[in-house]
Known about the structure:
The protein has a domain of 60 residues: Serine Threonine Protein Phosphatase 5, Tetratricopeptide repeat. The chain is 55% helix and 0% strand. Helix 5 packs parallel to helix 7 and helix 10 packs antiparallel against helix 11.
Amino acid sequence: MKAILAAAALLISVCAFARTPEERLFDAIESGKQLVAEGMVVKGGVNLDARNGLRETALHRAIEKGYRELAELLVKAGAPLGARSANGETPLHYAALYPDPFFLDLLLAAHADLKARNDDGESVLQWAVMSGNARAAKELLERGADWKATDLKGNTLLHAAADGGYTEMARALISLGVDPRQRNRAGQRPIDIARELGYADMVELLARFEKE
């Protein structure tokens, strides 16, 4: 019995040792061991384009977890800024969800593509609008993001704002020039979405354009 237990322990040890640096990096990120992950990046020898089951890189995961220092180290170490997840999101898409501009500024300073779109045709700017992140949307617009872009379903930024009930953001988009009467491929205007979801303030804002 002792021999069997010893053999089993040795097998477990060998399997653990045989795990790749990339697997250990992802494990450290997911288990909250930020310092361990940072140490691995500093040491080097890790393929920073390695992916998890969702095709996310370590940079995607560091941003989603809110790990500032790790994200900064990954960018400095050459992590691919244009890497796409299973649905085509780049790390910048993830960064656009944060009210705190740290990740957005970090990636844009490293020349990440602010015009990148995922497989649904959703831009980084659209993700900022969909999440109600006015600060990120403003910065992306100031840096040249395309406010006229639509996704594959024909949704404008105003459709996205209406879907979330973000009235003040909708007001800003209208002032920018986004057409409140434009229909998506399903024939819906932003006001139709707002009515369907019961956003009274949004409906009131958009209703005035029905008479023009």
